[in-house]
Amino acid sequence: MRQLPSLNTLRVFEEVARHRSFSQAALSLNVTQGAVSRQIKQLEDYLGVALFVRTPQGLSLTETGIRLSPQLAQAFDHIENALQAVRVPNLRQRLRVVVPPTWGTRWLSTHLRTFCERYPDISLSVTNTSAHDSLAEVDCIIRWGLEADSHCSSQLLVMERHIAVASPELFIDGQPPDVRTLPLLHILHDGKRLKVWENWLTAMGRDDVDAARGLEFSTLDQVIHTAVAGGGLAVIDRQMIEKELANASLLPITPVEVIGPYGYWLNVAHDKQGLSKVRLFTEWLGLVSNP
Questions:
Q1: Residue 155 neighbours by CB under 8 Å, 6+ apart
Q2: Core-most of 51, 120, 146, 203, by most CB within 10 Å?
C-alpha cells in the first residue's frame, strides 16, 4: 500500500508554490487561508522539513520546496492526462437516461421542465434504447417490471395504478358504459396481452365479463388514442393519462384503482452512483414521482 499524504494536501502545496502566497492559494482553491496553512503544516510534518520561508520580499520556497514543486506539477499533469484519456468525451455534464417509450413521452416529458429549471448545467439526453456505442455512456435506466434488479442499484419509483376509462361520448345520461357490450382494448408486451383487464375485473368482483374479447395493440399510445376516439374501453395506468383525465377526454368508469403488480424502477450501475448528476436526478425523480 502506498504511503502518501492526501492528494488534497499536495494540491494545496502546488497552489501555494505557484502563487508564492497562502492567501492567493486559498482564493484559487475556494478555501480559507487557515485551511491552506494547516495543509502545508501537515505536509511539512510528514516530510520532516520546511517547504516555505517568509522573507522581506514575501513567501519563498526552501531548497526542499524548490526540488519538490516541479516534480509534483509533473505528477499532476500525468494524472490529468490519464483521466482525460479514459473520460467519455463531452459527457461531463450530460445525463443520459434510457426510458420506456410511453413512460418517457407521457410522464417524463411532462415533468422535465422542473428538472431543467432546477439544474440548468445538466444537459439531459433521453432515449428509449440501450444500444449505445458504449454502455459507459448510460447513466440511468428507467425500467418497467415486477421487482428490483439485483445487478445494480435498483429502486422503485412508483407502482402502476390502473383504472378503467372510456370516452365521454360512451356515457349515456351520465351513466358509464357497460363493459359487457363494448370492445375491450388490450396492450401487448413481448407479444402477450398484459392481464390488466383480468386484474381490474377481479378487483371489481365481476365474473360476467369475457376478458379475452376485444382489440389488442402493440403500444399503450395506440390503446389511449383508440379509447379517446370512442373505439372501446381501456384499463390504463392513470399516471399515463394525466392529461386526458384533466381535460376529460377520458373518464373513469368507476373510481376503483388496481395497484401494481408492475411498477417503474430506477436502475443505476454501481460505478455511476457517486456521480452528482445521477444523485440530483434520483432525488428529483423521487420528489416528482411521490409528490
A1: 148, 265, 266, 282
A2: 51
